[in-house]
Amino acid sequence: MKKTFFSYKDPSARVVKQGGVYLRFIHDSYQAEFKHLMSCGLYDTLVSQGLMVRHVEIPNEKLPSRYFVEILPEQIPFHVLPFEWTFNDWKEALSVFLKINQIALSHGMILKDATPYNFARIEGEMRMFDTSSFQFFEEKSSWIAYRQFCQEMLGPLALMKFMGSAWSRLSQSYLRGMPLDFISRQLPLASYFNLPCLFHLHLHSRFQAKSGQAVEVRNFRGFTNEGLQLLLRSLEKKIGSWQAKTSTKSLWNHYYKEDLESEFYLANKQELISAWLKARNPKRVTDLGANNGYFSLLASQFVEQVLAIEYSLDCVEGLQAEIREKGIKNVTTCVADLSQLSPDLGNGFKEFANLGTRGHADMVMALALIHHLCLSFSFSFDQVIGLCKQFTTDYLIIEYVPKEDTQAMTLLHTLEDHFQDYTESNFEKALIKSFTILEKVPILQTKRILYLAHIGHERTK
């Protein structure tokens, strides 16, 4: 069985993907820390509080050389990376990180890493999944992950708080964290009156040599366990009160409430999609251009996991609020621009897969999306179908929106209409190059058409 190896920086463990499942091998050099984590009650406490993924040990008599145990961690349904998070996602990840450190200190340990890439949303909660990130804490020692915390976690969150959530997406260019002096220069004057920003970003950046290395602070005797606990609690309390800079409201955030051509449109579309979900029984669905998540939430009633991908931050935040309010566990949100998907990133372009790979499902929905991509971004039908194909192994539900549609005409209002090839016939020609059309149904009292298609060769109905 083919194995894919990960973990490029961690000498304590190695992550392996085998048969679509992620495993973690713990190195001999990390044996004392791992055994303490498991025996002292720290692991049980973190798992019971929903702060860290659970795992089971796998019996393996043929472990790789220098590894002493293999574990199967709780799997991440859809791995959404930090630059695809909302402000609240970032804030929750920081809160979990600070909580874990406080609990770990009470068990004589601390996290040696402070990267948002060790966190993911699982069952509606932000959890840490790096089981080998703990080390023993010694009295009167420094906070080993402090600089990394400031650069990779606190800095981006502060930029989002004061300058807007676009900084989350910009963090894609700084996978190892932004330089502190750069962060300090981008923050406004008001940030100097915010204590976490003042002490941990602005003043911290002043204690760096020009080479980027930290300058040793004279007379610093290190933290006691109690002293570091106090600092972590203070950070958690102050950051917990942060609110995001108000974002611009999306033109489309009330799409399914106020902007529909027909009162029958939504009910008919919902009826068709529900029937197809029941009949085809997918396990995972990715909703491209999810808007406010109306159909993502519908799909969540029929499938195990749903990924809702949407560019409008306002729409995603509204969906997240509804998910929290209703206690929904199987819908994951992702802020992403479908016209420019994230590529493979990191060491050897293998650490972080592109969004199409991470968002792979056995059914993809592209509802009320095609006119945005084709008219606003000049996608061809072939490119739209190619985009959908990246996300699915089996089925596609796609909605054709003609140029005569009210929403399409809204887009064309400020554009020169040079889209003569934008026709139903040309759309179907592009679709059948990669998919077999199973069903084609006009939506009541509109000129829109809903298609169910399959990558295989089932008979068209």
Q: Give the count of helical stretches.
A: 17
What separation lies between the terminal Cα atoms? Answer: 38 Å
Determine the mean pLDDT: 91
The CATH superfamily of the largest domain appears as Vaccinia Virus protein VP39
List segments where confidence is low: pLDDT < 50 over at least 5 consecutive residues. Answer: none
The tally of domains stands at: 2
CATH class of the largest domain: Alpha Beta
Characteristics:
single chain; 461 residues; alpha/beta; Rossmann fold; 2 domains; 7-stranded mixed sheet; 5-stranded antiparallel sheet; 17 helices; 38% helix; 18% strand
Write structural notes for this entry.
The protein has 461 residues and is an alpha/beta fold. The protein has two domains: 82-240; 255-454, Vaccinia Virus protein VP39 (Rossmann fold). Helix content is 38%, strand content 18%. It has a seven-stranded mixed beta sheet with strand order 12-11-10-13-14-16-15, sandwiched between helices. Helix 14 (370-376) packs parallel to helix 16. The mean pLDDT is 91.
Quick take:
By secondary structure, this protein is α/β, with parallel strands linked by helices.
What is the strand and helix layout of this fold?
Elements: E1 3-5, E2 13-18, E3 21-27, H1 31-39, H2 42-48, E4 55-58, E5 67-73, H3 87-105, E6 109-111, E7 119-122, E8 125-128, E9 134-136, H4 146-163, H5 166-170, H6 180-186, H7 195-206, H8 225-240, H9 255-258, H10 265-280, E10 284-288, H11 294-300, E11 305-310, H12 313-326, E12 331-335, H13 355-358, E13 361-366, H14 370-376, H15 381-391, E14 392-400, H16 406-412, H17 424-434, E15 436-442, E16 449-454
Parallel strand pairs: 10-11, 10-13, 11-12, 13-14
Antiparallel strand pairs: 1-2, 2-3, 3-5, 4-5, 6-9, 7-8, 14-16, 15-16
